[in-house]
C-alpha cells in the first residue's frame, strides 16, 4: 500500500501493466462457445431493474424526516443536515436578479415550455411546482397538456413547435410518459439547444467524454454536486458510490462525479454485495427509488450522504395519505454519516433550482447575453 501511495505515475502505470499481464496469464478461462451469437448482444441483456433489499431487520416504522421530531435521541446524531431548500433559495435569488438584469438590458426573459402527458398526480404536482418556481424568478412558462391516450405524434408535434419557437429557450417533457409511447424517440427530438433536462444523448455523451462540454447537465445530478460543493465537501480523490444507474439520475451522476475526479462505483439491482461496496464510500449518492433501502450499516462512519429518493410511502397522518421518504433510512443514517440531505428539503428543491439555472443559461446563450 505504502509503495502505491509514494510511486510515480510512470511506476504506477508499469505496475498496472504487470497486474494486467498477471491477470491474463495466471488464469486461462476457456471461452467456449465463442460469443458470436447475435442474440447475445455485447451490450448485455435488458433486464428489469428490481431491487430486493436483503436487510435482516426491518427499518424503523416512523418515517418522519425532520430532525426536530427526534429530540429524544438527538444526542446520537452525528450528521450535519444539508439544507437543500435554503441553498436552493440562495441560487433562486441570484437567478431572479439575472433575469431582471436581462430584461432591463435587452427586453427579453427566459421561457420554459413544459409538456405533460396524462393525469398522474405526482407528475401534475411536480410540473405545478416547476411552473411556480419559474414565476417566482421571472422566467416565463408555457405548458402543453395532452391526454394519457393521445397519439405519440401529438407529443412529437408539441416538441417540434416549441423547437421552432425562438421565444422558448427550454423544453421539458415530464417523465414518465405513458407506456405506449417511445420515450427515446420523443427525447431525441428535443432541440439540443433547448434540452434543459440534459437528457439528449449528445448532451449525455459529451458529459461522459473528457474535454467535451455538454450544453446542459441534467438537473438532479447537477443538484447533487451543487449540494456537495456548497457544503464544502471535497470530491477530488474521494471514493463515491452511486446507487442506481437510471439514465436521468444514476448514470449522469456517476459521470459528473468522475469529472470531479472522484473514484466512482455504481451499485445496482444486480450487485451482489451493495452494502459492502457502499460502506467503502466517502460520498454516497442514492438514486434507487426504493424507500429505506440504504440502512445505517451500509455507511462508513463520517460518510456524506446525498439522498435522491422521493418515494411515496403510506402515512395515515398526512393530508394525502402518504408522505415522501428517501432511499436512505434517515434515522439510522444521521447517527453514522457526517452530513446528509433530508427528504423532503434536500435534493428536490435544488433540482428545481438547477432547472431554472439551465433555462436562464439557455436564454443567455440564445441572445448572446453575458
Ligand atoms: N423531464 C423530467 N425532468 C425531471 O426533472 C423530472 C421528471 N421528468 N419526472 C419526475 C422527476 C422527479 N423530480 C423532482 C423534482 C423536484 C422534487 C421536489 O422538489 N421535491 C420536494 C418535495 C415536493 C413535495 O412535497 O411534493 C422536496 O424534496 O423537498 C421532487 C422530484 C423531477 N423529475
Taking all Cα atoms into account, the compactness measure Rg is: 23 Å
Instruction: Just name the CATH architecture of the domain at 218-349.
Output: 3-Layer(aba) Sandwich
- Mean pLDDT equals 88
Can you summarize the main beta sheet?
6 strands, parallel
Assembly state: single chain
What is the fold-level CATH name, i.e. the topology of the domain at 218-349? Rossmann fold
| Small-molecule components bound | 5,10-Methenyltetrahydrofolate
Q: Going across the major beta sheet, what is the strand order?
A: 1-11-8-7-5-6
Number of helices: 12
Strand content: 5-15%
Return residue spans where pLDDT drops below 50 for at least 5 consecutive residues: 1-30, 63-72
**How helical, in percent, are the residues?**
25-40%
Q: What best-fitting shape do the alpha-carbon axes yield?
A: globular
CATH superfamily of the domain at 218-349: NAD(P)-binding Rossmann-like Domain
Classify the secondary structure makeup into a structural class: alpha/beta
Distance between the ends: 49 Å
Topology as H/E string? Answer: HHEHEHEHEHHHEHEHEEEEHEH
Total number of beta strands:
11
Amino acid at each position: 500500500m505504502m509503495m502505491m501511495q509514494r510511486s510515480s505515475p510512470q511506476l504506477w502505470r508499469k505496475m498496472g501493466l504487470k497486474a494486467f499481464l498477471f491477470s491474463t496469464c495466471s488464469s486461462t478461462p476457456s471461452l467456449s462457445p465463442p460469443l458470436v451469437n447475435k442474440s447475445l448482444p455485447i451490450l448485455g441483456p435488458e433486464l428489469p431493474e428490481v431491487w430486493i433489499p436483503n436487510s435482516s431487520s426491518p427499518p424503523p416504522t416512523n418515517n418522519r424526516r425532520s430532525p426536530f421530531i427526534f429530540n429524544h435521541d438527538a444526542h446520537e446524531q452525528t450528521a450535519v443536515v444539508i439544507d437543500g431548500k435554503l441553498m436552493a433559495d440562495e441560487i433562486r435569488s441570484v437567478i431572479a436578479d439575472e433575469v431582471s438584469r436581462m430584461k432591463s438590458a435587452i427586453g427579453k426573459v427566459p421561457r420554459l415550455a413544459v409538456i405533460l402527458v396524462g393525469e398522474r398526480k405526482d407528475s401534475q404536482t411536480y410540473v405545478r411546482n416547476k411552473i411556480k418556481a419559474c414565476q417566482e424568478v421571472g422566467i416565463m412558462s408555457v405548458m402543453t397538456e395532452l391526454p394519457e391516450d393521445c397519439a405519440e405524434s401529438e407529443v412529437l408535434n408539441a416538441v417540434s413547435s416549441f423547437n421552432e419557437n425562438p421565444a422558448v429557450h427550454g423544453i421539458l417533457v415530464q417523465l414518465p410518459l405513458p407506456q405506449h409511447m417511445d420515450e427515446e424517440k420523443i427525447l431525441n427530438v428535443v432541440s439540443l439547444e433547448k434540452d434543459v433536462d440534459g437528457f439528449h444523448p449528445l448532451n449525455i455523451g459529451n458529459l461522459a467524454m473528457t474535454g467535451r462540454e455538454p450544453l446542459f447537465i441534467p438537473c438532479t445530478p447537477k443538484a447533487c454536486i451543487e449540494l456537495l460543493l456548497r457544503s464544502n465537501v471535497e470530491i477530488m480523490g474521494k471514493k463515491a458510490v452511486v446507487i442506481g444507474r437510471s439514465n436521468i439520475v444514476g448514470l449522469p451522476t456517476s459521470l459528473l462525479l468522475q469529472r470531479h475526479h472522484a473514484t466512482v462505483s455504481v451499485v445496482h439491482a444486480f450487485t451482489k454485495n451493495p452494502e459492502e461496496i457502499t460502506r467503502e464510500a466517502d460520498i454516497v449518492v442514492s438514486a434507487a427509488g426504493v424507500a429505506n433501502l440504504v440502512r445505517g450499516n451500509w455507511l462508513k462512519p463520517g460518510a456524506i450522504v446525498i439522498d435522491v429518493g422521493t418515494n411515496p410511502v403510506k402515512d395515515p397522518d398526512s393530508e394525502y395519505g402518504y408522505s415522501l421518504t428517501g432511499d436512505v433510512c434517515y434515522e439510522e443514517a444521521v447517527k453514522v454519516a457526517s452530513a446528509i440531505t433530508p427528504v423532503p428539503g434536500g435534493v428536490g428543491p435544488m433540482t428545481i433550482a438547477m432547472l431554472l439555472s439551465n433555462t436562464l443559461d439557455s436564454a443567455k446563450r440564445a441572445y448572446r447575453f453575458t
